[in-house]
From TrEMBL, chains A, B:
<dbReference type="InterPro" id="IPR050287">
    <property type="entry name" value="MTA/SAH_deaminase"/>
</dbReference>
<dbReference type="InterPro" id="IPR032466">
    <property type="entry name" value="Metal_Hydrolase"/>
</dbReference>
<keyword id="KW-0862">Zinc</keyword>
<keyword id="KW-0378">Hydrolase</keyword>
<protein>
    <submittedName>
        <fullName>Amidohydrolase</fullName>
    </submittedName>
</protein>
<dbReference type="InterPro" id="IPR006680">
    <property type="entry name" value="Amidohydro-rel"/>
</dbReference>
<dbReference type="GO" id="GO:0046872">
    <property type="term" value="F:metal ion binding"/>
</dbReference>
<dbReference type="InterPro" id="IPR011059">
    <property type="entry name" value="Metal-dep_hydrolase_composite"/>
</dbReference>
<dbReference type="GO" id="GO:0019239">
    <property type="term" value="F:deaminase activity"/>
</dbReference>
<dbReference type="GO" id="GO:0016814">
    <property type="term" value="F:hydrolase activity, acting on carbon-nitrogen (but not peptide) bonds, in cyclic amidines"/>
</dbReference>
<feature type="domain" description="Amidohydrolase-related">
    <location>
        <begin position="52"/>
        <end position="400"/>
    </location>
</feature>
<keyword id="KW-0479">Metal-binding</keyword>
<dbReference type="Pfam" id="PF01979">
    <property type="entry name" value="Amidohydro_1"/>
</dbReference>
Length: 431, 431
């Protein structure tokens, strides 16, 4: 089998010194990493001189279907923004809106080096499953369920249909999640049933929890128990559970997460933009709770760039902890790469190691904003200076999704044009 | 006189709805803004379709001479980082190091849309004054003074020489500052003398204050008075004073700043990266204290992009105040543009108005990460999505510094090569 050899790049690995190395991709796998790899005549050679080499970034929480709401209603607090902007607009969404939105999301994610994401959305997820495999990304997909109207069976059946479809897929790119939206949009018994469904198929449980102080207060006064304890009592905290946000959680709740080996998707840009607050990530990491990084939807970010969220997180927690070493660079890289991938059920992704899945990203470091471009500073450049325009090449499972700045599996101009056209339809229908 | 007409761009103005407008630049000035401007045959026409049009960004605090230390010693707290990384490296700097560093800084600033900056550095500032006018940016320059060794006269004379040189310059691009480094590096009587020097020439007073909690504690125990009150007692707080950082300031100190009409350079990325903390910007703005945005040096940022600092600030204060409307978008735009320019003594800059200085920036908004690209969301795209690679064109005082992504007054490849070569010299001399 012909291989691709990525030569002369500076390889970044959490906790290790950045080093110039060559990497060979054969099929879907990184099968060699060495100081010098000699290509055979059949191999393709990619020159990564002046570039950093990283694993594909992993987005542990997003809602690709709402990407057309990017920047809508900026400056509103979460509940008001959901009630007055997001939900009314989403009520007008058709299949074509959501397809245009997801393509836009995947195009932006690939451009910013993301190869894997976990998506929670209530519309058109069967189509998304198909589309992800066409585009060549990896994804964990869960049908977002809001269950205040009593139509529980309908919701759970649709969720189950998605799980079954994904489990019959042979691409190796997909996994399923069961995703009740949140404790404030799903009655406790519904959460329990959702957990049972996840158990039946051995898939990820994914929900929003304790995003705002107000939400936690409401939950305490309605139910007399903290949200994470409530999830625990409902059987929802497992080693295959990923909780989005967990901004306002107590030490006791962190202990429950730790004991249940549940993971957190930290979504710093969304939490900041919506005024939700700052999650206690240093404490989570210190307890050994797995932490990944999520963009949340473009509507509250406004990027879908895990790189941007990693950079925001690195600045944010050093600053708010008033301790520049509160969380180490290697912990942010793990969150963006291997920890994120592991919590999504892809333990062989998110790492540049022999035998790992070939999810690889090249990032130019020969830029003004990363000069001097020296190995000892490569991690600092990545965490505090690189931007998505510096990313030139992306492989997912050995398949090239972007080469030399051009997307290969999505038509960028068409994706943009369709997104604009779909938004115009919605805007006109609301006049 | 031939004019440049910028056509079809979406003009962003703090507090106003973004609107498609044409802008005419004649000489150094914006002399017309209108829905449609018909060019004469002699005029140059720039098509800004698919672009945002903003004023030049203003960097109210930086140290361009130390740009080669970008990313050095990442993860150390401020005092340790100064003592073990910054000051030892700077002790080896020669004239050529600092010139390469300043050119690198100016190139990166122009690329990220910055047309004006205030620089505090202790080396080679006379040369920088000349270089700024060649490059065509605007700058306020002050010789950074550390005065713990008793050689006060020497320091003050060098500062005065810079002030006199700048005041004899006819370009209109330069202003002078008197810049004692900080209360912890300058004895109180030296600060008083520095203030008197600024008074004599009617120039800006610029110093660091209350950057870390530790520094404030030390000052209180050594001097029995808070840093800002101390500056006030030393006659240093005036309407021409710009204080860098002011992270750890009390309500009483904010009142002193307000009463003296002194301004603050908020440097969020540096304050976060170094673990210094979060400045009370909402309170400052509520008190009417002018707030600008500074990158601080590349060594602690690692960017020299006011756009990046504005974006970080917008996220940070919404999140830490747990209120997405704590500071309005228009306040961040004013800080980055007109408030910043005014506090640096250029009240006609930082605004897109007829009669203003022609400091103009074009930013592509036809990008995946700013789709849908609609006027109502332009401010949100700028604050939460744009990146420096989206910036294509920059004019300062009517002179084009970047056109269609290419720097015109600096040779980008040469700037990068010289910076790398100078850093290698330093690294080798330290072996």
């Amino acid at each position: 089998m012909n291989a691709t050899i990525i030569k002369n790049g500076v390889v970044l690995t959490p906790g290790k010194r950045a080093e110039r190395k060559d990497i060979r991709i054969t099929g879907k796998t990184i099968d060699q990493i060495a100081s010098v790899i000699q290509p055979t005549r059949e191999d393709s050679v990619v020159d990564a001189s002046g570039k950093l080499v990283t694993p594909g970034f992993v987005n542990t929480h997003t809602h690709t279907g709402s990407t057309l709401l990017r920047g809508a209603g900026g400056g509103l607090p979460l509940q008001e923004w959901l009630r007055t902007v997001m939900w009314p607009a989403e009520a007008t969404f058709t299949e074509t809106t959501v397809r245009a939105a997801s393509d836009l999301a995947m195009a932006e994610m690939i451009r910013s080096g993301t190869t894997m994401f976990m998506d929670m959305y209530h519309l058109d997820m069967l189509h998304l499953a198909e589309r992800v495999t066409e585009v060549g990304m990896k994804a964990v997909l869960g049908r977002g369920m809001i269950a205040l109207d009593g139509r529980w069976t309908e919701r759970l059946e649709a969720a189950e249909e998605l799980v079954k479809t994904i489990q019959s897929d042979k691409s190796g790119l997909l996994k399923a999640a069961v995703s009740p939206h949140a404790l404030y949009t799903c009655p406790p018994d519904f959460i329990r049933k959702a957990g049972e469904l996840a158990e039946k198929y051995d898939v990820i449980r994914h929900t929003h929890v304790s995003e705002t102080a107000q939400e936690v207060q409401h939950h305490l006064s309605s139910h007399g128990v903290s949200p994470c304890r409530h999830l625990h009592e409902l059987g929802f905290l497992t080693p295959k559970t990923v909780l989005a946000h967990a901004v306002h959680v107590t030490e006791e709740e962190l202990l429950l997460l730790k004991e249940n080996r549940s993971a957190v998707s930290h979504n710093p840009r969304s939490n900041l933009k919506l005024g939700s607050g700052v999650a206690p990530v240093r404490k989570m990491l210190k307890s050994g709770i797995p932490v990944g990084l999520g963009t949340d939807s473009a509507a509250s970010n406004n990027r879908l760039s895990v790189l941007a969220d990693m950079q925001t997180a690195a600045l944010l927690h050093a600053g708010t902890e008033e301790n520049s070493t509160a969380v180490q660079a290697e912990d942010w890289m793990s969150a963006a790469w291997n920890s994120g991938a592991s919590m999504l059920g892809f333990p062989d992704s998110g790492r540049l190691e022999e035998g790992s899945a070939a999810d690889v990203v090249l990032i130019r470091s020969d830029r003004l904003h990363m000069t001097p471009d020296i190995h000892e500073r490569a991690a600092d450049h990545l965490l505090f200076a690189a931007e998505s325009a510096d990313i030139t090449d992306v492989w997912s499972n050995g398949k090239a999704l972007m080469r030399e700045g051009s997307l290969l599996t999505l038509d960028e101009e068409k994706v943009r044009a369709e997104a604009e056209a779909e938004w115009r339809k919605i805007a006109e229908s609301n006049v």
